[in-house]
């Protein structure tokens, strides 16, 4: 199958593909009909007329995506912050109570 890949001129990373040129940075290549580049073009670089899978970059993208999935949601972040503030308020209230008792001679 003949496709056109859009290549970043600075990084040589494939940024997309199509059946017709989509930018001035396109190159025509031939790949199998079910080639991975059609599902994951960002895993590839184009150099010396060939596409090559950048496994280190692929692993980084996978790790980044996993980190996003495992990160707390905005609501969870707010809930954690709310709990932290409640604990901080308890400590502050206790300090105020102790200071008031000292001022009253107790």
Topology at a glance:
Layout: E1 2-7, E2 14-18, E3 26-30, E4 44-47, E5 50-53, H1 55-70, H2 74-103
Antiparallel strand pairs: 1-2, 1-3, 4-5
Describe the structure.
It is rod-shaped and about 90 Å long. The chain folds into 2 domains: 2-62, no CATH class; 72-103. β4 and β5 (50-53) form a beta hairpin. The strands form 2 sheets. Strands 2-1-3 form a 3-stranded antiparallel beta sheet, with no helix packed on it. The protein has a two-stranded antiparallel sheet with strand order 4-5. The mean pLDDT is 93. It is of the alpha+beta class and 106 residues long. The chain has 2 helices and 5 strands; from the N terminus they run βββββαα.
Structural class: alpha+beta
CA(first)-CA(last) distance? 88 Å
How many strand segments?
Answer: 5
Q: Please work out how many helical segments DSSP would assign.
A: 2
How much is the average pLDDT?
A: 93
Overall structural domain count: 2
What overall form do the CA principal axes indicate?
A: rod-shaped
Sheet having the most strands? 3 strands, antiparallel
Low-confidence stretches: none
Radius of gyration: 28 Å
Helix-strand topology string: EEEEEHH
What percent of the residues sit in helical stretches (DSSP H or I)? 40-55%
**Strand ordering within the main sheet:** 2-1-3
């Amino acid at each position: 199958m003949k496709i056109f890949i859009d290549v970043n001129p600075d990084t040589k990373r494939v940024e997309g593909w199509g059946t017709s040129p989509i930018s001035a940075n396109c190159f025509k290549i031939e790949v199998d009909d079910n080639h991975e580049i059609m599902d994951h073009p960002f895993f590839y670089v184009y150099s010396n007329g060939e596409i090559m899978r950048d496994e280190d970059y692929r692993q980084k993208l996978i790790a980044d995506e996993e980190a996003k999935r495992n990160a707390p949601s905005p609501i969870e972040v707010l809930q954690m912050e709310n709990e932290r503030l409640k604990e901080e308020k308890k400590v502050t209230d206790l300090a105020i109570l102790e200071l008031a008792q000292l001022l009253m001679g107790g």
